[in-house]
Design goal:
elongated, 22 strands, 28% helix, Myotubularin, PH-domain like, Myotubularin-like_Pase_dom, six-stranded mixed β-sheet
Length: 677
Amino acid sequence: MWWGGRGQSFNIAPQKEEPEMGVRRGKGLGGGVCHLKGANGDDVEKEKNLEEAEGEQILAWAPGVRKGLEPEMPGTLICSNLRVTFQPHGWQRSQETPLSSEYDFSLANIGRLEAVHGPSRVQLLRPGSLLKFIPEEILIHGQDFRLLRVGFEAGGLEPQAFQVTMAIVQARAQNSPAQQYAGITLSQAGQSSDSRKPPIPLLETIEDWETERKKQAARGWRVSTVNERFDVATSLPRYFWVPNRTLDSEIRRAFGHFHQGRGPRLSWHHPGGSDLLRCGGFYTASDPNKEDIRAVESMLQAGHSDVVLVDTMDELPSLADVQLAHLRLRALCLPDSSVAEDKWFSALEGTRWLDYTRSCLRKASDISVLVTSRVRSVVLQERGDRDFNGLLSSLVQLLSAPEARTLLGFQSLVQREWVAAGHPFLTRLGGSGASEEAPVFLLFLDCVWQLLQQFPAEFEFSEFFLLALHDSVRVPDTLTFLRDTPWERGKQSGQFNNYTQVYTPGFPGAGNSINPQLSVWDWNLRYSNKQILQFRNPGYDPEHCPDSWLPRQQPSFMVPGPPSSVWLFSRGSLTPLNQLCPWRDSPSLLAVSSRWLPRPAISSESLADQEWGLPSHWGACPLPPGLLLPGCLGPQIRLWRRCYLRGRPEVQFSMGMKYTRDTLSLPIIYFRRDISI
């Protein structure tokens, strides 16, 4: 049964014809009407203008007032089986940006729901709870730190307030996490599916990978099709880069000796000659033959005599640590946090979120020095290869490659190192119901924001763009963040046959739940042109663009490493290894002479001095152009206020935040919509 207004229960009458997304021809709230069927079969007119997606059902609605704003905003609170939205009087969804509204909260994004009656009566409503009173207002806390506070009108409308609140509670209880992230049909949004072109390469075709390889000038690498049917690893992309001289048959055997079949692949080729690779942990229980071991060593060396294995998780938090820190941070930033004002900053340090951000930046800085100081192969190794490998690889490229700091370059970076590489977005963001929730990607965005604060002229994109991306991870519009692997995205979108992993060219028809051509990077379907202009950083210095960077393959840029050397980078220092593989001693790699033994580095700067200054007969090498080494000391790592404190604007004001009229009007910042008293 669906709750309706004024104590009645309604079923939605089917529309005679399907309207275009966001183009329902009404007069807006207060003028447009939606015809519903009441319990007695009579037509009931309801004043609302919610544009329903396919499969969306209105469960309840109630007139209300958006509180926390000056002046307060009257409108209607609407609950459906996909979202909760507040629609101000006179508001109408734009035809140009049909996919989202600044007033929408997907059910998956609701982290906490509170009902309030009087000055002291507050009830926390969990999925399946029973409301004990008729609320005067409700507070919806988003997991993205947004806040929606709605007060209900008096004068005989109390049943509606009760019904819409209970509808939200029941919708959250009845919808499984997978259903909450089931997606919305967008086949009629924007241009037709035949004419729409992704704003950036989605890396779903071999042509996309070949184009990217040529852009990086990775001449020693090729695009492998060994995983085209996902029979090597479903968490890997269909295509990836491997050394030219490595056969696909060797790749198939070698990858079987790594955790989840995630063997070494190229992440990024440095213009000076170094290569940054990533892989899963060695599967030590396997028993590879000599040919397999040679193939593994060849892929890890990637044609270099100097190889550095990086223990990714060394000195970084565990997934459980990240999740706990994020929960503590969110609780601290709630408007009703019980922490006293004079203890707020110490409580912030107690969350450990800033410490983990600092650790990630420090380690990425160290790896950047390793990549840029000598011509070598640097291999990031994490057991699962799906979380911190992506974070570190992305940060290293941001620190070392100016093209990654452009708007298109950064989007391509996220698509390649996170989406295509198989980061389990759905699981880590709590959408699968599993116990492995940990917002690693949000931690990465915080790290990027820190870099933006320290090097404002080096980045083409702005803080507003990072906020938009931060808030897009729980919006059920596209498949970008709604699945854990490329295989799951392809299967959901109809690119694969039902009972096989065989790829089927082309895109699905209108009957599929999500149009796979629409990605999170289709910003023009969510934001207006005026808002998208705010994605660009006005302080960006064009002199830092890729065209002004050093030429590709500049021979004098980097110096070669020691002959046939293998290193383990752990706890800020390089330790020599006698072998690359854990299964047996490898006579093909020489032990490192004692004259190469380094001193432990206590910072990225000392590691840089050590790397560029040793051995002395090579001479010192200047800091490479374009390389950024961020500061990681206490006050240099700051709280991302516009993200985490937007539900507590009074805290932002007390911290010296300044607002402008244009800034307050941007939905991507959510200042106006999240202010609470």
